[in-house]
Design brief:
The protein is of the alpha+beta class. It has one domain: Endonuclease/exonuclease/phosphatase (Deoxyribonuclease I, Chain A), CATH 3.60.10.10. The protein is built from seven helices and 13 strands. β1, α3 and β2 form a beta-alpha-beta unit. The longest helix has 15 residues. The two termini are about 30 Å apart.
């Protein structure tokens, strides 16, 4: 059964407030890309998938160094929905603070509570109101917190939320965020099959957006094939316009044109992808993460 627990201090208050807001985006900071900013037309949803790289004190690329860059990136882009991976609890609280009071988030640690990494979904409360959410673990016992039965190198999980889109006539949709295992092909393949199975328990009349770090390249992995065979569409492929392509995991090294795209935004049929980009933002040569955020401008249908 879906859970309706509150996982952030302001979720209950913000949900109540969001239900009464008309969805105005006045006061939103402009995008760094002027052409893209012009495309923020009413009804279009700005979505980002972003592996944050977990907070660490180790140099170089500590969280203390990367946080200001992450703050600048997110304040310039202001996506309506951000599916994140690898964030640790205090790191997620830092981002919550840096985004400001218009944003909230939903997630839990993959080992339970505030422990270990999160698959957290941030959302702009002026645009989106959460209606229900749940988590499941990528294992033979998906409802057992922290379970890992397929030989994966780490605990893996998914978080989903059903939202009401206040800027699109109150239309509802699902968002699911996940991070597949980096070391076990078997764990990845079984995780993809489980995700498809779980999608089958959701309301099929509602659009769905999936964000994640899948740890395998699109079009060259059974995972991508399984998800597309289940009826999902890769927003990068379907977008009417795309930015330059790079390997989305760069490890703080020079970007690799046309490298492996392991971070994806997938959608159900009927969702229109107007534009997809890999965000190469950096400050003084410092990237916010070892992954590039991938963004898409979408219309739900």
């Amino acid at each position: 059964m879906p859970h309706h627990r509150r996982v952030t201090r302001r979720l209950g208050l913000k949900t109540a407030l969001a239900a009464t807001v008309a969805g105005s985006l006045s006061g939103t900071a402009p995008s760094a890309n002027a052409a893209r900013a012009e495309e923020r037309t009413e009804g279009r949803l700005e979505v980002m998938t972003f592996n944050l790289r977990y907070a660490s004190t180790a140099e170089p690329h500590s969280w203390a160094v990367r946080r200001p860059v992450t703050r600048a990136l997110l304040r310039r882009e202001r996506p309506h929905l951000i599916g994140t991976q690898e964030g640790l609890y205090q790191q997620l609280r830092d981002i919550e603070s840096d985004l400001g009071p218009a944003y909230d988030w939903i997630g839990t640690g993959r080992a339970g509570g505030s422990r270990d990494e999160f698959m957290a979904l941030y959302y702009d409360t002026r645009r989106l109101a959460p209606l229900e959410y749940d988590h499941f673990w990528l294992s033979d016992t998906p409802d057992v917190i922290g379970s890992n039965t397929w030989g994966g190198g780490s605990i893996r999980m998914a978080t989903w939320v059903r939202f009401r889109d206040l800027g699109d006539g109150g239309r509802e949709f699902y968002a699911l965020d996940t991070h597949l295992d980096n070391s076990s092909p078997n764990a990845r393949a079984r995780a993809a099959a489980l995700i498809v199975e779980r999608l089958g328990t959701l309301d099929p009349s509602l659009p769905l957006l999936m964000t994640g770090d899948f740890n395998v390249p699109a079009h060259r992995s059974p995972v991508h094939g399984t998800l597309l065979a289940a009826g999902l569409t890769d927003a990068w492929d379907s977008a009417a316009e795309r930015g330059p392509a790079y390997g989305t995991f760069h490890g703080y090294r020079p970007l690799k044109p046309d490298g492996d795209r392991i971070d994806w935004i997938l959608t159900t049929p009927g969702v229109t992808a107007h534009r997809a980009v890999m965000n190469t933002f950096s400050l003084g040569g410092q990237f916010p993460s070892d992954h590039l955020p991938v963004q898409a401008t979408l219309t739900l249908g």
